[in-house]
Amino acid sequence: MLESRALVGGGVKTTQLTLRGFKHDVCSSAHVLIQDSPILRDDELGLGQYGLEYLYPDPVVHLPFPDGSYITQWRDMDRTCEEVRKVFEEGWRRYR
Fold first, then answer.
1. How far apart are CA 65 and CA 41, in angstroms?
2. 57, 73 contact by CB (below 8 A)
3. pLDDT, the chain, mean
4. Cα(34)–Cα(21) distance, rounded to whole angstroms?
5. What are the backbone angles phi and psi of residue 51, rounded to the nearest 5°?
């Protein structure tokens, strides 16, 4: 295996990208898909003893856009749907 970066980990590396104290998953976005795997769900590999801990924030995702608008995904489906509706209504008005 070859590592292109000075720090080992490549796409599965966690590092500080924005504010001090906030660590980010650099490329491994598949973590949201593997959390239901018995290997992780039941901690079969004992990764918890090494500090693996999943956090479930609310909001789940917040995407700001260059024009100052944004969209937020919440854990609550109704709240997320309202957010999507708001963005689409504003978008329709903007492009008429």
1. 34
2. no
3. 80
4. 25
5. 105, 0
pTM: 0.50
DSSP state letters, 20-65: TT-EEESS-TTHHHHTTSHHHHTTTT-GGGGT------SSSEEEE-
How would you class 83 by CB atoms within 10 Å of its CB: exposed for 0-12, middle for 13-18, buried for 19 or more?
middle
Distance (Å, whole) CA 2 – CA 23: 24
pLDDT digits (tens, 9 = 90+) for 58-80: 998 888 877 788 889 999 999 99
Alpha-carbon torsion (79, 80, 84, 90), positive or negative: positive
What's at 90, amino acid-wise? E
pLDDT at 66: 79
Measured CA to CA, the distance from residue 62 to residue 75 in angstroms comes to 12
